[in-house]
Each structure stands twice: as structure tokens, then as C-alpha cells.
UniProtKB/TrEMBL annotation:
Binding site residues for substrate: L58, E63
GO biological process: folic acid-containing compound biosynthetic process; tetrahydrofolate interconversion
Xref: Pfam families: 5-FTHF_cyc-lig
Family the UniProt entry places it in: Belongs to the 5-formyltetrahydrofolate cyclo-ligase family.
Name assigned to this protein: 5-formyltetrahydrofolate cyclo-ligase
Amino acid sequence: MSEAFSDNRMRKTELRRQSLAARNALSVSDRVGKSQALAVHGAGAIELHTGAIVSGFLPIRSEVDLHHLMALLRDRGGRICVPVVLDKETIVFRELTPETVLVPGTFGTSGPGPEEEELEPEIMLVPLAAFDARGHRIGYGGGYYDRAIHRLREKGLNPRLIGIAFDCQEVASVPEEPHDMKLDAVLTESGYRPFADMPA
């Protein structure tokens, strides 16, 4: 492992720790209010066609609660799915409807069971630990989303990647690694911010 690579990893670990500490410090009522504001911004800003497949996620720990946004996007004709961990390497996206029964999963998660259809998202609402103003993100360290996005791109698909976070999770600069996937936009309680014209 090169010294630069090792330095990047250590820097990412520290930024992840700081950003998640800031998120954890938000009160429950703050997170509820900010999640609602984020949903309103997202419902107006995210472009989708009828039947578009959108992957959201069900919140764990202090994450943004996307229930309201997913419901609004479903009302606009979106088809909603959420990630389910299959093993130590893989997540799949199973359809989530108002009638879906959730079953316990790994890492304290819950999600649709294997009877629900697996979908390939066109728009991905991506959880993250930290992000910067250029559209680079730090995930939770497991690499699940990076692998899922790579798998979709190998199939010729190019999902739009929208990072989901609170404003307090923004950092000055995220160290880059070759496998990192740049976000197309980020959505926070302050609004929707596209990165299409930003330098890498």
C-alpha cells in the first residue's frame, strides 16, 4: 500500500468520524424537521418519468428519514426500492410499496423479503457519511454502494447518484481514490445541489 493511499484512508476515516459525530449530535426533533425539509426540496427537484425506478433507503441510527420523500416520489409515478444486504459483498434493491412487509436484516436494518421483486435503479438516493462541494462522498466503509453501482454500470446502466445527507455532514474536501464514484447531486435540508458543472 502506497503512503499516499494510506494517508487518504486515514484522512477518510477521520472525516467519517467527525461528520457522523456532527450528525449524531442533532436532536431527534432536528432530524425530523430537516428530513421533512429535505423531502420537500427533493420532491420538487428530482426529475423522474412515470415508472422510473428510484432506490431510497430505510434509516438506521441518525440517518435522514426518507419515508416522506419516497412517498412523494411514489405519488409522482416513481417505483421505489430499497437496499437489502445479501452477504458481506452484495446489496440488491427490492421493491418497497405501502403494502410491503419488512423483515429483519443485517447491521440493524430491515427491508423487503425475498418475495419482493429485485429492481435496477435509474435514480439512487445514496446514504453517506460525508460529502464535499465537488460531489465526492465518503460512505460507511463497507463499499456496498460502490460495488452495486459498478455492477449496474457493467450492465450498461448509468444510474443518477444523489447523495442524501444533512448540511452538517459537508466537509471541505474528500480525499479521492480510484474506485470512488462521484455524485451527480446532493440533497440536504437546504436544497438540491447538482454537481454536473463542477470540476472533478
